Amino acid sequence: MTTPIAISFSETDLDALAGAEGKLAVIVTPDGKLDQSARRVNRLTKGALVRLAESDAWDKAKTGDCVSLGFPTGLAAEALLVVKLPRRVSVEEARRAGAELAKAKGKAALTVAAGAFHRAADMSFGLTMRAYEFTDHKTGDPSIGEGALFLVSKPEDVSAEAAPMTAVAEGVFFTRDLVSEPSNVLTTEEFAARLAAMADLGLEVEILDEAELETLGMRALLAVGQGSESPSKVVVMQWKGGGDEAPLALIGKGVVFDTGGISLKPAGGMEDMTMDMGGAGVVSGVMRALALRKAKANVVGVVGLVENMPDGRAQRPGDVVRSMKGDTIEVINTDAEGRLVLCDIMWYAQDRFQPTGMVDLATLTGAIIIGLGHENAGVFSNDDGFCNSFLKAAGAEGEGAWRMPLGDAYDKMLKSHVADMKNVGGRPAGSITAAQFLQRFVKDETPWIHLDIAGVASVKADTALAPKGATGWGVMALDRMIRDGYEAE
Ligand code: BES
Ligand code: MN
Ligand code: ZN
Fold it and tell me: Fewer Cβ close by (within 10 Å): the C or N end of the chain?
């Protein structure tokens, strides 16, 4: 597993700045004001910071950027990183500055002279999040690089503030690793084994095998996996950090590879379907974060792990399957498999846990990418209050989320002549009809949010807090929603 770089906090020692090895970072305000550490560094470098602050380069730099001065006179450091930040900044600005530091640092050791900067913990979180690289399958030097030392005026306070953030970062890294893994490595069995290992963190983990799923009646889920050599599995993870109240349920689509099945996908880009377990990846990452920070809430995560392969035993277009709920489904297109997996585990979670709310996450439709691109996940809900609490959390964490409509007219598009419903609604409103399909498996009394993360789970360009590839989108937002709404003492 990719572990975050080591970060430590200690008290500012002005006399140690000259000798700091690796790279040294100081903060300078946009109008050129230097704090104590920056003043000392300015003196040691014979005025380099004051000259920089008066330069065009400084003018051009944006808030949160850092300007690198190579091999500065008077310092042992190989580079001096000058961070442009006002005295007071938003969480997002502080994180971005940290992420810029991660880029500028490379693999070198970094000392950040943050002094009395009020968002040093957020800055360290941004640094941690951006310093991610999935190197498990690279030979050579796969190390993530040297750690970072933050020099601050109140190290205990900052370090206490940063501790739960580190738990979230570890959750995000867990998700990113799962999403990055190729499908010959992350089989359904390997995925389940990695979740079982989280029992060490205090999570209760159960793995349901095909025979148990058969007994439960999860024929829709099982039909998706029946063409694969990897056995289908459902993994239930419970974190019991609250009282005896019913849990919040998180449900994840875990298609470890989606070929489309007999409705085979075209070859171009099919390799991207290694990330089709992204929903299950996010659920797993959130559960890990909750356990690591010992959240005072009851949360259950349920993921459906299957592989969608064409085979002599694979399901065919036109097949009719019976869901655990009892409703029958005509499988028009075997590539609309995510909803077949989700409908059974959503029903199971409600049946077994009577959750106070249910959030499902899935790389469900290509159509959501057409609608929202890679900036926002699609959000669908039957409950305005619940939905707004999620949207607020996502906004606070800088994770794009945009609400989409539901409605009877869309639901009608799922009408089938031979079964209770068909699994596709045609080309128009593809993401909405997928959500309508799922809603048929939501009990009236269950507040529910469906997150279509097909566009945001893995991206082809760097984002604010992640290099290109798996983002871990949603771990921060869900952790925040739980912290704000389920842990109030
Ligand atoms: N896993 C795909 C959706 C997807 C597409 C995720 C692109 C990430 C990137 C899903 O199982 C799928 O194939 N959906 C079909 C549904 C269609 C057959 C109704 C789609 O979007 O084309
Ligand atoms: Mn598919
Ligand atoms: Zn899929």
Answer: C
Q: Rounded to 5 degrees, what are φ and ψ at 487?
A: -115, 5
> In the structure, which protein residues have their CB atom closer than 6 angstroms to any atom of ligand 1?
258, 276, 333, 335-338, 363-367, 424, 430, 454
The pTM of the full predicted model, rounded to 2 decimals, is 0.98
Could you identify the residue written with the tokens 């000798």?
Answer: 19
Same domain (yes/no): 263, 411: yes
Note whether 316 and 427 are same-domain residues. yes
Average predicted confidence (pLDDT) for the chain: 98
pLDDT, tens only, 269-291:
999 999 999 999 999 999 999 99
Q: Residues 107, 265, 296, 443: which is the catalytic one? A: 265
Q: Are residues 93 and 178 in the same domain?
A: no
CA distances from 157 to 9, 80, 126 (A): 10, 26, 18
C-alpha–C-alpha distance, residues 386 and 360, integer Å: 13
Q: Which two tokens stand for residue 249?
A: 């349920």
CA dihedral 327, 332, 338, 340 (to 10 degrees): 20
Say if 161 falls within a structural domain. Answer: no
Does residue 339 have an active-site annotation? yes
Q: Which of 153, 184, 211 is the last residue of a domain?
A: 153
Helices (H), 239-317: 278-292
Number of domains in the chain: 2
Encoding tokens for residue 314? 């694979």
Q: Does 70 share its domain with 37?
A: yes
Distance, CA 337 to ligand 1 centroid (Å)?
Answer: 8
The answer to whether 180 and 189 are in contact (CB under 8 A) is no
For ligand 1, what atom is nearest to the CA of residue 337?
11
Q: Is residue 202 part of a domain?
A: yes
Q: How far apart are CA 287 and CA 198, in angstroms?
A: 9
CATH classification of the domain holding 245? 3.40.630.10
Q: Which of 339, 440, 480, 483 is catalytic?
A: 339
Last residue of one domain, picked from the residues 153, 186, 205 = 153
Domain match, 269 and 372 both: yes
Q: How far apart are CA 80 and CA 111, in angstroms?
A: 10
For residue 468, what are the contacts with CB-CB under 8 A and spacing of at least 6? Answer: 459, 460, 461, 462
- Between the CA of 364 and the centroid of ligand 1 the distance, in Å, is 6
pLDDT digits (tens, 9 = 90+) for 236-255: 999 999 999 999 999 999 99
Range of the structural domain that residue 187 is part of? 169-485
Q: Which ligand has the minimum distance to the alpha carbon of residue 275?
A: 1
Q: How far is CA 176 from CA 5, 36, 256, 317, in A?
A: 15, 38, 14, 33
CATH number for the domain that contains residue 93 = 3.40.220.10
Q: Is residue 2 part of a domain?
A: no
